[in-house]
Amino acid sequence: MSDRRVEVIGPGRLGADDHKIWREIRAASGAPANPFLDPVFTSAVGLVRPRAEVAVLREDGVPVGYFPYERGFAGQGRAIGLGVSDSQGAVLRDGVRPDARALLRACALSSWEFDNLESGQDVFLPHTAEVLASPVVDLDEGFEHYARGLRAGSPGFLKQTLAKERRLARQAGEVRFEYDEADPGALRTLMRWKSAQYRRTGRRDRFAQEWITRLVELLARGEDPGCRGVLSVLYAGDRPVAAHFGLRSPTVLSWWFPAYDPAYGRYSPGLLLLLRMLEAAAAEGIEAVDLGSGPARYKESFKTRDLRVYEGAVVVPGPGGAVHRLRREPVRAARRFVRDRPRLARTAARALAELGRVRDR
């Protein structure tokens, strides 16, 4: 009979062997090589979030699984990088399926919250509250094959987008695209644009949170092919007009922080950037671009299919679990109520935008 144990460590204690085993387990599972579920992302979060931890599941001393999370008040846990991580879950060898609540007890957690749990996470799926669509662009057959499908499905959309690119070149200067821009000034510009966009739409400014800014800067400097940042910039003349910072693995690119200069909004620079980025990513060997969950009309135009991701929480009976329910369930219920009513959702979006305008006065 094998000896099964759970050891809780800080992400900084994950060694080269752990990274190797983690990736071998992920590869054997057949799951997409999403960079958010790579050990490099967990390690990076550990450098900016001091309460990040990893439960290492061992059989006879050998790692057979990794469960990254962050610890909060009263033992309430959350997915590693919750709020910015677009793919969450545990990394478990085939045949290893612990009970979710037993795993939390081994970590001294009273709950574990997730909002982008990947499909196939059978340990946690019974604790799902909502199922969300995460649009994906498939590029495994090359960009030209994708572009033919885009023309067939949305001929007017592609034609209008390319016409705007030509008009931008005529009126603002030669259009140039850099897939992997190394200029740190371009990253600062992107974060400034994104902060302004958050405020303009009445949403919480993620880059006002120091840990998120530090995480992005840290990943931007990374060079590990399993998970590294890619800054893509669209220029008109010598001026940046749109940019995106995302994470990539050898085969998957995650669409993460896109923004553009509103002064060039009439040219749809964000759409131009995404189109050129898809072309460059395909040339770099990227097989899929995950656009992430959350409603956006442009995602519907570009996507080839949807992944399913899940929102919910595992709650252990007891005082800590009761605290989680009191804190989170009313918020989730209110959000679901609005999201399931398109007219109310549009009204809420307009109200947020008006709040953003008031804030900027």
Describe this structure in words.
The chain is of the alpha+beta class and 361 residues long. The chain folds into two domains: 4-135 and 308-359, Gcn5-related N-acetyltransferase (GNAT) (Aminopeptidase); 161-286, Gcn5-related N-acetyltransferase (GNAT) (Aminopeptidase, 3-Layer(aba) Sandwich). The chain is built from eleven helices and 13 strands. The protein has helices spanning 16-29, 39-48, 100-106, 143-153, 155-172, 184-200, 210-221, 269-283, 297-302, 319-339, 342-359; strands at residues 4-9, 52-59, 62-71, 76-79, 91-92, 111-118, 128-138, 175-178, 228-236, 239-248, 252-260, 288-290, 305-315. Strands 1, 2, 3, 4, 5, 6, 7, 8, 9, 10, 11, 12 and 13 form a 13-stranded mixed beta sheet that branches. A hairpin with a 4-residue loop joins strand 3 (62-71) and strand 4 (76-79). The longest helix has 21 residues, at 319-339. 40% of the residues are buried. GO terms for molecular function: acyltransferase activity. Keywords: Acyltransferase, Transferase. It is an enzyme of class 2 (transferase).
SSE blueprint:
Elements: E1 4-9, H1 16-29, H2 39-48, E2 52-59, E3 62-71, E4 76-79, E5 91-92, H3 100-106, E6 111-118, E7 128-138, H4 143-153, H5 155-172, E8 175-178, H6 184-200, H7 210-221, E9 228-236, E10 239-248, E11 252-260, H8 269-283, E12 288-290, H9 297-302, E13 305-315, H10 319-339, H11 342-359
Parallel strand pairs: 4-6, 11-12
Antiparallel strand pairs: 1-2, 2-3, 3-4, 3-5, 6-13, 7-12, 7-13, 8-9, 9-10, 10-11
Helix pairs in contact: 2-7, 4-5
